[in-house]
Design goal:
The chain is mainly alpha-helical. Helix content is 65%, strand content 5%.
Length: 242
C-alpha cells in the first residue's frame, strides 16, 4: 500500500494560491461570456480573445466606448465590465505572488529551467509533489498525472489508446498548456527547433503532439525533483530546442 506524504504548511499555502487562481479564472470566463451574450443580443460582437474582451471592458468603464445601447443595457454591461477588470487585476496580483514564490523556492526554481514550465507550473509541481522518491521512475510519475496512453491487447497485439487522464487534473492541464506553447513556437519557427520536433508535428496532430511533449516534460520534472540539479539540454534535445 502506498501512503500519500503529508504536505507541509508552506505547500498547502502555495496550493491555496493556485486554487484561488483557478476560481478567479472561471469567474472571469463567466463574466466575459455573459458580456458577450448581452452585447450579441443587441447586435454587438466582441472579437475573440480575452485581450479584446478586456480592451472593450476598459473602454466601457472609461466611457470611451462608441457602442450605442439602451440605458439599461449600458448599465448592465458597465457593471459586468467593471467586475471583469477587477477580477483581472486580482489575477495579475496572484500571478506576481506566484512568480515571487517561484523565485524563493529552491525546487520551483529548478523546475522552471524546463522549457514549457513557468512560475505557475513550477510552483504547482513543487507544492503538489511532497516526496518525488515515491515514484520509481519518470514514467510512473507521468502515469500518476494521467499522461500515459491506455494499453489494451487483442489477439496477442498490444494497442495504445488515449491518455488515461487519471490523477491530478490541474497539473496535467498546466503541462499540456506549456507543451502547447512549445508546439506553437515550433510551428511558427520550424527552422529554429530540433528536426525531430518538426517530424513529430508532421506525423501527428498538434493536440497529440502537445500531449506527447507534456508526457516528456513530466518525466523530466520528476528527474529534476528526485535527483536534484536543473534541466540539461543534452538529455532532452527535442524539448530543449523548443
Amino acid at each position: 500500500m502506498r501512503f500519500v506524504p503529508i504536505k507541509s504548511r508552506e505547500q498547502q499555502a502555495a496550493l491555496s494560491l493556485h486554487r484561488v487562481r483557478q476560481l478567479l479564472i472561471k469567474q472571469r470566463t463567466q463574466l466575459v461570456n455573459m458580456m458577450r451574450s448581452v452585447l450579441a443580443e443587441l447586435g454587438v460582437a466582441i472579437p475573440v480573445g480575452i485581450v479584446k474582451a478586456l480592451q472593450m471592458a476598459r473602454e466601457i468603464v472609461d466611457g470611451e466606448s462608441k457602442i450605442d445601447l439602451p440605458t439599461e443595457a449600458t448599465n448592465v454591461v458597465a457593471m459586468l465590465a467593471g467586475q471583469l477588470l477587477q477580477l483581472h487585476a486580482q489575477l495579475r496580483k496572484l500571478d506576481l505572488r506566484l512568480a515571487a514564490l517561484q523565485r524563493s523556492d529552491e525546487r520551483a526554481r529548478r523546475l522552471a529551467t524546463i522549457p514549457g514550465i513557468g512560475p505557475i507550473g513550477a510552483t504547482a509541481l513543487a507544492a503538489s509533489v511532497t516526496d518525488p522518491s515515491q515514484f520509481s521512475s519518470g514514467r510512473q510519475f507521468a502515469a500518476w498525472l494521467g499522461l500515459t496512453p491506455r494499453q489494451s491487447s487483442s489477439g496477442g497485439k498490444e494497442r495504445l489508446g488515449r491518455i488515461t487522464k487519471m490523477g491530478d487534473r490541474y497539473l496535467r492541464q498546466l503541462l499540456v498548456v506549456g507543451a502547447t506553447a512549445l508546439v506553437r513556437y515550433a510551428k511558427q519557427k520550424p527552422s529554429t527547433v530540433d528536426p525531430r520536433f518538426v517530424a513529430l508535428l508532421a506525423r501527428k496532430p498538434a493536440r497529440v503532439a502537445s500531449v506527447a511533449i507534456a508526457n516528456k516534460m513530466a518525466r523530466i520534472a520528476w528527474a529534476v525533483m528526485a535527483r536534484g540539479g536543473v534541466f540539461e539540454r543534452g538529455h532532452a534535445p527535442m524539448l530543449a530546442a523548443a
